[in-house]
């Protein structure tokens, strides 16, 4: 049985994953949410003003009232900056699975932050929410994200060809997952 406990604080060696706060606006703008390249890789709009980010945060923060809402600000312990986000943006209570999405600001990529955050959220999902399966997707053009997914032990399930139309070309969507039994063996 899936257990909904809502977005709880998760601490790793270098990160704190916590609920978003309005005090995150400036670091979000500085580090990732206004970056078109970062936002386009996970099909999100660019937010360029404090007002726009506050409006988004109002939605996020209001959703924390729901026990089946899971979205974390990724905070670098060293700088105290919000360097990205990670979420179970799709939670299927009936079938006991959830899908992760994440983004990390360009300046913070290739330093293991996405892998660290993803492993922590997987652990939270299996151990605290009692998930049976965690899935994750990426675009075929997002090679760094594919590496993160593989480092986290996800198994490739397949490709939805020409799933996205971006910048005048079609891009596929790669699907990966890991089952509780596979996760427990690691």
Describe this structure in words.
By secondary structure, the chain is an alpha+beta fold. The protein has helices spanning 25-31, 36-41, 50-63, 113-127, 143-151, 180-184; strands at residues 10-11, 15-18, 70-76, 82-92, 97-104, 133-139, 155-166, 169-179. It has a domain at 10-132: 3-Layer(aba) Sandwich (Aminopeptidase). Helix content is 30%, strand content 33%. Strands 1-2-3-4-5-6-8-7 form an 8-stranded mixed beta sheet. The model has no long low-confidence stretch (mean pLDDT 96).
Q: Can you name the CATH architecture of one domain?
A: 3-Layer(aba) Sandwich
User: How many β strands by DSSP?
Assistant: 8
Distance between the termini: 22 Å
Determine Rg (CA atoms, Å): 16 Å
CATH superfamily of one domain: Gcn5-related N-acetyltransferase (GNAT)
CATH topology of one domain: Aminopeptidase
- The ordered string of helix (H) and strand (E) elements is EEHHHEEEHEHEEH
Beta-sheet strand percentage?
25-35%
By CATH reckoning, the class of one domain would read: Alpha Beta
Mean pLDDT: 96
* Coarse structural class: alpha+beta
Shape: globular
* Share of helical residues: 25-40%
Main β-sheet description = 8 strands, mixed
């Amino acid at each position: 049985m899936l257990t909904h406990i809502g977005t709880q604080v998760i601490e790793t060696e270098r990160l704190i994953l916590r609920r978003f706060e309005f005090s995150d606006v400036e670091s979000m703008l500085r580090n990732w949410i206004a970056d078109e390249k970062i936002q386009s890789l996970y099909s999100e709009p660019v937010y360029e003003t404090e007002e726009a980010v506050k409006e988004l945060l109002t939605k996020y923060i209001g959703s924390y009232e729901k026990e089946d809402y899971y979205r974390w600000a990724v905070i670098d312990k060293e700088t105290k900056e919000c360097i990205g986000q990670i979420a179970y943006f799709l939670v299927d209570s009936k079938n006991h699975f959830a899908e992760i999405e994440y983004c990390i600001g360009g300046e913070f990529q290739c330093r293991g932050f996405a892998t660290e955050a993803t492993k922590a959220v997987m652990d939270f999902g299996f151990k605290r929410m009692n998930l049976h399966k965690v899935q994750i997707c990426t675009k075929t053009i997002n090679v760094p994200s594919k590496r993160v997914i593989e480092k986290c032990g996800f198994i490739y399930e397949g490709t939805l060809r020409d799933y996205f139309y971006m910048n005048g070309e079609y891009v596929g969507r790669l699907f990966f997952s890991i089952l509780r039994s596979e996760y427990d063996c690691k």
